[in-house]
Amino acid sequence: MKLDVVVVGGGAAGLLAALAAARGGRRVLVLEAAKDVGRKILVSGGGRCNVLPMEDAPERFVSESPNRLVRRFLDRWPLSSQRTFFEDLLGGTLREEPESKKLFPPSNRAIDVRDALRGAVMAAGGELHAGAPVRNLARAGDALAVRLDGEEEIAAPYVILATGGRSVLAGGADAAGFAWAAALGHLVRPTYPALVPLTGDAPAHHALAGVSLTARVTAWTEKERASSSGGFLFTHKGWSGPAILDVSHVVERATLAGASAEVRVCFGFGEEEWDAALRGAGSSGGSGSLFLSSFLSKSSSLPDRLAGLILEEARVPDVKLSGLSREARLRVVETLTAFPLPASGTEGYRTAEVTGGGVALEEVDAGSGRSRLVPGLFLAGEILDAFGPIGGFNFQWAWATGRTAGEAAARG
User: Is the pTM of this model over 0.85?
Assistant: First the structure.
């Protein structure tokens, strides 16, 4: 069969690209290294698939390119239109999770999302070849050629590179798209694990493994700063939870540069609120007979063990509130609102949800996903230098960039 478009990678971006190109009347072939397409879709959201976020947040995307370029890519397929598409595709209203602002499929099953996309591609006339790892991508006269195992080559005038990143690699996948893009002349910014748990040598923290609560985490270096609120979890190796994952790139990038990042956690209230609460509780009409640790546990639902660690960090004994000095109170407030995490690194690609870095957005046309350097080449998804926070934003990026590339390839 003579092909018009070859899509390398059958993940979220690749499936949307293939669907858009096939619905545009093109003969499309998807090549996926793993045994089946959409493997990352299947494992996302704990098997539920957080299809999309409820609200836009382009300013929270991380890229070495200007944020205005990130916005241009996302604007090609607005969030409201994406939601309508998936509700039509899945035959029902997406489930809202207001507390996390996430959207899930009507069935709450990731497999239904993957199967619906796969079925739509085939219904539109596209072909899906799984277990077909691509070994190289190169120019071939007026076309581009992808080389498979056994030296077989498939040529097409248009190739959409949607090979994904280095995280959550399914069997057979190797994220070689970065190397191919570089070999074809693209600037590929250094890649690194992102949205990943932090690690550090902190026995007192590790002893709290399993303790979870809601908190605000801030990480910074001289060059960048990131903050996020949400779930926070102590682990046997360090710290995890959405609030940690969203700032982990700051720590990872600092580590790669041979530097360190500061990480602080704010539990419960801000400084003024905590100070007022402690002063009020210690007054004659307050709860002065309560011990400090008990007050912390009751007033903000801090687990007992964490309350004890906070007092240790603040170097304040567990006294009755009526006997808490001003100096001690201020140290407790500072620790509650800027609790230090001795993070020294991350768990790496093994547990990372996405890959940071990738092909510079300046070298890809945001309106089409077309390479500005290589005729016939389009790029979509995680191979591009941009990723969003936890909450469906990276699927939003994959769907938007995949559809844009597929539609543009169909137009020629």
Answer: yes
- On whether both 203 and 257 belong to a single domain, the answer is yes
Consecutive H or E run containing 213: strand 212-220
What is the dihedral sign for C-alpha 394, 9, 48, 105? positive
What is the Cα–Cα distance from 347 to 218, expressed in whole angstroms? Answer: 18
In the chain, DSSP finds a helix count (H) and a strand count (E) of 14, 20
Structural contact between residues 353 and 199, judged by C-beta atoms closer than 8 angstroms? no
Per the structure, the complete domain to which residue 235 belongs is given by 197-347
pLDDT tens per residue across span 110-167? 999 999 999 999 999 999 999 999 999 999 888 999 999 877 899 999 999 999 999 8
If one counts every other C-beta atom within 10 angstroms of the C-beta of residue 84, the result is 12
Q: Are residues 44 and 176 in the same domain?
A: yes
Residues 342, 375, single domain; the answer is: no
State whether the Cα torsion 388-391-395-401 is positive or negative. negative
Look up residue 388 and give its two tokens: 């969003």
Q: Across-strand partners of 378?
A: 160, 370
198-199/354-359 β-pairing: unpaired
Q: Which pLDDT tens digit goes with each residue over 212-270?
A: 999 999 999 999 999 999 999 999 999 999 999 999 999 999 999 999 999 999 998 88
**In a 10 Å sphere around its CB, with 0-12 CB exposed, 13-18 middle and 19+ buried, how is residue 210 labelled?**
exposed
Task: Give dist(CA 37, CA 13) in Å, integer.
Answer: 11
DSSP structural state of residue 387: B
Give Cβ neighbours of residue 196 (< 8 Å, ≥ 6 apart).
167, 245, 248, 252, 346, 347, 348, 349, 351, 352, 353
Domain count across the chain: 2
Q: Give 251's Cβ-side CA count (13 Å radius).
A: 31
DSSP secondary structure letters along 89-157: HHTSPPEEETTTTEEE-TTS-HHHHHHHHHHHHHHTT-EEE-S--EEEEEEETTEEEEEEGGG-EEEES
Give the residue carrying structure tokens 């709450």: 108
| C-alpha 125 chain-centroid distance | 32
